[in-house]
Amino acid sequence: MACERKFNESEATTGFYLLLGQHGNKAVLDWVMKEGLIPSRYECPKCKKDMLLVERKGTIDGFEWRCRVQSKENPHFVCRSVCMVACVNESAKLGGEGKIVEIDESLFGKMKYGKGKRVKGNWVFGGVQRDSKKCFFRVVPNRTKVELLSVIREWILPGTTIISDCWRAYECLSDEGYRHLTVNHSLTFKDPETGAHTNAIEGTWWAIKRNLKGHTAHVEGQFDSYLAEYMWRRSNEHKMIDANFKDYLKAIARVYPPHELDDQKK
């Protein structure tokens, strides 16, 4: 390691630390790793391989942990992996008695030659809770009753008032412990009798697609992670204040847990 006594100085002196800093950030990192103050290795949560500490301009200390096997064909999105844990794996369910959740599906795909004809894309099923930043979005293989009901049970509490369009897969919701209201979009944007509408979820689709514009959001196996990033940002009102940042750091520690000191010395 770069910190292993390139100079003759006791580590119990101020002079040692002054000289250590003069040897650069890498020497400092090597020393604190040697002392067990920070982990000396990280395992990629995606491929389970040891990551490599490499230089990167723009970071605070000039270095970052990077997966050795990452490539354009096999991207590992660290930020989005953290969001998957913080928003998808650990989020509380939406709704409950007296709460309203709007649900809908949307096809995310490119337009062929700008003529309005969609090519193969991703069906996304989602829901937003009114008067709240709580939401969920999930890539689904199809829009069948079995598929959509499975996601609804996973994300929405019984007793919730669910508002949707008239898609036939939702006809069972009243039998599943939910209060179900519909709006026929072929006739109106708001049901004249019940006042039911899905303006919130419709507006959210626009926001998500705007945020994804220009990104490779349709890479196989990665689209859910983009949705998770949006969910995290929305839940935190798209603000990186101190409290949100601390929560994010805790999520990083859960995704990339520091190795025990004993493991480092093996």
TrEMBL record:
Q: Which InterPro entries match?
A: IS1016-like_transposase, Tnp_ISXO2-like
Top-rank taxon of the source lineage equals Eukaryota
Where the record annotates domain ISXO2-like transposase, the positions are 93-235
Q: Which NCBIfam families match?
A: transpos_IS1595
Name of this chain's protein? Mitotic-spindle organizing protein 2A
